[in-house]
Amino acid sequence: MRVRLALAAGVLATATAATALTGATATAAPARSANVVSVDRQGKAAKSGEVSVSGSYRCARGGSGPVFLGSTLVQQDRSVGIGGTRVVCDGRTHRWTHRSLVKQNSFKAGTARVEAVLVRLAPDGPLGLPLPVFLTRSGQSVSLR
C-alpha cells in the first residue's frame, strides 16, 4: 500500500510540475461544478527559505480512491512543488495551506504564480496501480511577501 501511495504522490507532483513548466493555463471550474480549487492572491517567502501558499477547495462526495491537492510555485525560471495534501471530499468548501523549505533565497518577495490541482487516485488501473483522475485545477498570480 505504501508503494502505491508513493507512486501516486509522484504522479501528482509530476502532473503539477508539468503544468507549471509548460506554462499551461488552466481555467477554473465553472460555478456549477462540484469540484473547485482556488489559490489566494497572497503568499509568503521568508528569508529562511520557507515559502507558504494557500487557498480553498471543494470536491464532491463519492468516487473510489483518495483525493489529493497539490501545489506548485513558479517564479521566473524556478519551479518547485510546495506540497501535496490528502483532502476530504464532502461537498463543502475547505481551506488548504502548503509550506515548504526550499533553497534559501531561491524565491523572493514579488510576483509569482501558483498552480493547484485536485487529483483522485482511481484504484482500477492496470497492474493494480492507481490511475490519476484530474478533478480540477487552477492557476493564480500571487504576491509573495
Task: Give the SSE layout.
Layout (H helix, E strand, L loop, with lengths): L1 H21 L13 E4 L2 E4 L4 E9 L8 E9 L2 E10 L5 E9 L8 E13 L8 E14 L1
Parallel strand pairs: 2-8
Antiparallel strand pairs: 1-3, 2-3, 3-6, 4-5, 4-7, 7-8
Helix content: 10-25%
pLDDT < 50 stretches: 1-31
SS-based structural class? mainly beta
**In percent terms, what proportion of residues is strand?**
over 45%
The run of helices and strands is: HEEEEEEEE
Overall number of strands: 8
Mean pLDDT: 82
For this structure, the quaternary state is single chain
Shape: elongated
Distance between the termini: 39 Å
So how many helices?
1
Compute the CA-based radius of gyration.
15 Å
Largest sheet: 8 strands, mixed
Key traits:
single chain, 145 residues, mainly beta, eight-stranded mixed sheet, 1 helix, 14% helix, disordered N terminus
Task: Report on this structure.
The protein is mainly beta and 145 residues long. Helix content is 14%, strand content 50%. Strands 1, 2, 3, 4, 5, 6, 7 and 8 form an eight-stranded mixed beta sheet that branches. The N and C termini lie far apart (39 Å). 33% of the residues are buried.
